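Human:
Care to share another protein and its fold?

Assistant:
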Amino acid sequence: MSIGEMLAATVPMVRTLNLEYLETTPERAVLSLPDQGDFHNHIGGPHAGAMFTLAESASGAVVLAAFGDQLSRAVPLAVSAEIAYRKVALGPVKATATLGRPVADVVAELDEGKRPEFPVAVAITREDGAVTGEMTVVWTLRPNS
């Protein structure tokens, strides 16, 4: 089962918004939000909450791809998220998430008994490639007790 299939099966919001996992690697994840009238805002584009969920979901996918082998000893948790809406989004949108620190550095901190934090940058784009939003999610790996 791929990370996208696993998340679609276990995260209700992924199914609700019909998010599509286009790429998921330890370095980046790309998800798309189809154009759906049920999730439009007052100007006919995707609602800000839907775009936030898309971007946060992309960040979670890259975190699982990068640190899935650490799940027996730590739980990934989002610590904070900040989003900026840059341009009007109409139609389908994509979110591309990239890990902000080398995996080995984060795992080394975990090995030292620390609770590492690391950023994931996400760009939300329209079909024409214009960036409509940018998000940074800070994640942590909380060691299991």
Remarks:
- Helices lie at 3-10, 12-17, 48-67, 103-111.
